[in-house]
Amino acid sequence: MKKRILCIALCLLMILALGACSKKPANAVIRLSTTTSVNDSGLLPYLQPHFEKATGYTLEITSAGTGAAIEKAVSGDADCLLVHAKAAEESFVADGYGVERIPFMYNYFIIVGPADDPAGVAQCATATEAFEAIAAAGCAFISRGDDSGTHKAEMNIWESVGLVPDGSTEAWYISAGSGMGACITMAAEKQAYVLTDKATYLAHEQGAELKLLLEKSDEMKNTYSMIAVSPEKWPDVNIEGANAFIEWMMSAEAKALIAGYGVSEYGEALFYLLEG
Question: How many angstroms from the chain centroid is the CA of residue 109?
C-alpha cells in the first residue's frame, strides 16, 4: 500500500514538473539592452522578478549609455531596447533595426550641485539659463560625455546656449565618459554641477551631498521607449521574448509597480506613465 502511494506521489510530481516545463518558453532568455538610469535607479532590478515570474522568461540585462545600448542592438547582440533618446531611437527604427518605437514612461532631468549654488542655478527659470549661468561663473560641471541619452540632452541645452564645451578650452567642464551614478559621485566629491535624471539622483547614496536646484522645466522631460529588434535584420533575434517583455511592461501589473516605485522611500514616484 505504501509503495502504491509513493508511486502515485512520484507520478503527480512528474506531471507537475512537466506542466511547469511546458509553460517555459522555448527561447527563454531575453537580451535587454538598456540605459543606466533605469538600472541605477533600481527600477529594472525591482521589476525583473515580477516579469520573470509572470512570463517564464529570463531577462539578461546589460546597461550602458543610450548610444552604446543602441549599438548593441545594431550589432545583433540584443533582442529588445529600453532607452531614452528620441532622435536616436527613430533613426534606429528608420534604418530597419527596430520594429516600432513605443514610448511608455518618463521622468525629468534635473540640475543638482553644491548647496551654496555659486552660479545661482536655483534662481534660473530654465535649463538654458542655468547652463549660461554655470558657464559665465566658470563653475565646475560634470558631463556624462558618453553619448548617452542624458549626454545628448545636455548637449542640446548647450547648443541652445551657443556653446559646445568639451573640456579642451573650458577648465570648468569635465567630460567623465562614465555612467550616471559615477558622475553623481564625482560631482559630490568636487562639489560640481551635473545634469542627471531625478530617479538616479534620489536613489544614489551620495545624492544627499548635492542640492536639487532646477527641475521640471519643459526642456527637462525625459521619455523612455521600448523597441523590439527587427527579426528581418537579425533572424535569430528572440522576437517572441521581446514582444512578451513589451506586452508585460504595458500591463496593468507593471504599470502599478512603476507608478508605485519610490513612493514609500522618497515620498514620490521616480517614473511616470505616459497617458494613452
Answer: 12
